[in-house]
Each structure stands twice: as structure tokens, then as C-alpha cells.
Design brief:
Elements lengths: L29 E6 L3 H11 L2 H4 L1 E7 L2 H11 L3 E4 L7 H8 L1 H4 L7 E6 L4 H10 L3 E4 L4 H12 L4 E2 L1 H11 L9 H4 L3 H11 L4 H8 L3 H15 L4 H10 L4
Parallel strand pairs: 1-2, 1-3, 3-4, 4-5, 5-6
Helix pairs in contact: 3-4, 6-8, 10-12, 10-13, 11-12
GO molecular function, one term: DNA binding
Pfam families: GerE (PF00196), Response_reg (PF00072)
Organism: Streptomyces phaeofaciens
């Protein structure tokens, strides 16, 4: 896992750019931190949107887990954070909880846009309740992602089309029922272990990801199997995949 890094260069104005060539050509600028536990994905996103003179997006930091994210976000105070939902150390919801004072800063708020492979309703609703301004999936194009970042910077709420319905349904009533009663039986840590098991991680890898012992991982897996009335990790993987939790 790489340490958080900061890009300290100052974005220059796009000289000679034609109108409509990119967000940078319109004079807009936004500072962004990328939070995702997959280094190759972070590299890909930065290559896609981080050409500041063309897009107006300046990537000033990266993080791979919850603790790194809080440290980098606090130090750099970006305008927008691209936040993965599933992270070692507590997930995107934990990052939002610990960064709540930064989001509440009236003069210089840090705004969060969830960027995740998951389109599960419980993931979407969880981070929106945590304070994120929007949620888009990793199938989004680079152009649309840049547009979403600027909209969040301006205070808009942004969602991939299918996901907006989840949020409307969840907030239509303060007494909205759980999205998935089976999943609701699991603790946050059990959900993290469940997702990593479903992704094919070995117990030792899960222990490293979550900073817990292998024995604790085994205990969580046993608890998940018991609560969901499943027999083994293969059934667990099928269960998670059917609910798009992977």
C-alpha cells in the first residue's frame, strides 16, 4: 500500500486553448484528493482527469485507507474529495464521519463525491447520510467525472441516473425501512470482511487490509455465515455478488 502523496505543482493557465476544449479553457479550477485502495485505479483516474490545463482539475493528494485519507484531507483541504466506499479501516463512511468538521466549514467546505464500483442501495444511502454530495459509479467517463466534480464543488448534488432513485426513496420518509434486512444484521466490520471475502481475498490479506488479526477475521467470517445462514465462503460470495456488494 502506497503512502499518501501530494502534488505540489501549481496549475498554470491553459494558453492557446480553444473554447470548449476543456474545463481548464473556461478558467475553472478545482483541487481534488483521490481516495481509493487500488493504486492502479488512482493512477488511471489521475491520468484521465488530472491534466489541469485541459480539465481544470488539480490532484493535490492521494490516500489508500481511512487513516491516510483523513490525514491528507486535513493537511491539504481540497475543494472536492473523490471517495471510494470500500476502504480498509472503516470504509468511506468513516472518512466522512472523521471529516465532518471540514464539511461543515462555512467559508471553505470540503465536499465529497463518492466514486465506487458498487451501485448497491445501502452503499449509496450510507455515504449520502454521511454527508457526501453525490455518488457516481466507476463506469463514468472522464468527461462526465470532471463535470460531476465541478458540480459538487459548486454545491450541487450529483448522482449516476439509476442511483438517484435510491436516495429519493430512502429520504422520502424518516422511517424508511432497511434496504436489506439480512445485510442490516451485520456490523460495519462484518460487512467489510464480507466484501473482501467475496472479492477473493485470503484471510491473511483481509487481516492486513483491516489491521486486525487472522483469528479476528475468522471470527467475523463465522459470525457472517451464522447470521446469513450460509455454510461456506463460496455461498457467501454468491450471496454478496447477487446483491452487488462486491
Amino acid at each position: 500500500m502506497s503512502d499518501p502523496t501530494e502534488a505540489n505543482g501549481t496549475a498554470g493557465a491553459a494558453e492557446g486553448a480553444e473554447p470548449g476544449q476543456g474545463d481548464g479553457a473556461n478558467g475553472r479550477r478545482v483541487q481534488v484528493v483521490l481516495v481509493d485502495d487500488h493504486r492502479m485505479f488512482r493512477t488511471g483516474v489521475q491520468a484521465e482527469i488530472g491534466q489541469t490545463e485541459q480539465t481544470g482539475v488539480e490532484v493535490i493528494g492521494e490516500a489508500a485507507d481511512v487513516d491516510q485519507a483523513v490525514t491528507v484531507i486535513t493537511a491539504t483541504r481540497p475543494e472536492v474529495v473523490l471517495l471510494d466506499v470500500h476502504l480498509p479501516g472503516g470504509g468511506g463512511v468513516e472518512v466522512l464521519r472523521r471529516c465532518a468538521p471540514l464539511m461543515a466549514d462555512a467559508e471553505r467546505p470540503v465536499r465529497f463525491l463518492a466514486l465506487s464500483v458498487s451501485d448497491a442501495a445501502e452503499d449509496v444511502i450510507g455515504v449520502i447520510r454521511g454527508g457526501a454530495r453525490g455518488y457516481v459509479t466507476k463506469t463514468i467517463t472522464g468527461t462526465d467525472l470532471v463535470d460531476s466534480i465541478f458540480r459538487v464543488q459548486e454545491g450541487d448534488a450529483v448522482f449516476s441516473p439509476r442511483l438517484a432513485g435510491f436516495v429519493l426513496d430512502a429520504f422520502a420518509s424518516t422511517d424508511a425501512p432497511p434496504v436489506d434486512e439480512d445485510l442490516d444484521r451485520l456490523t460495519q466490520r462484518e460487512r467489510e470482511v464480507l466484501r473482501l471475502i467475496a472479492r477473493g481475498y485470503a484471510y491473511k490479506e483481509i487481516a492486513r487490509q483491516l489491521y486486525i488479526s487472522v483469528k479476528t477475521v475468522e471470527s467475523h467470517v463465522s459470525a457472517v455465515l451464522r447470521k446469513l445462514q450460509l455454510s461456506n465462503r463460496h455461498e457467501l460470495t454468491r450471496w454478496a455478488t447477487a446483491r452487488r456488494l462486491v
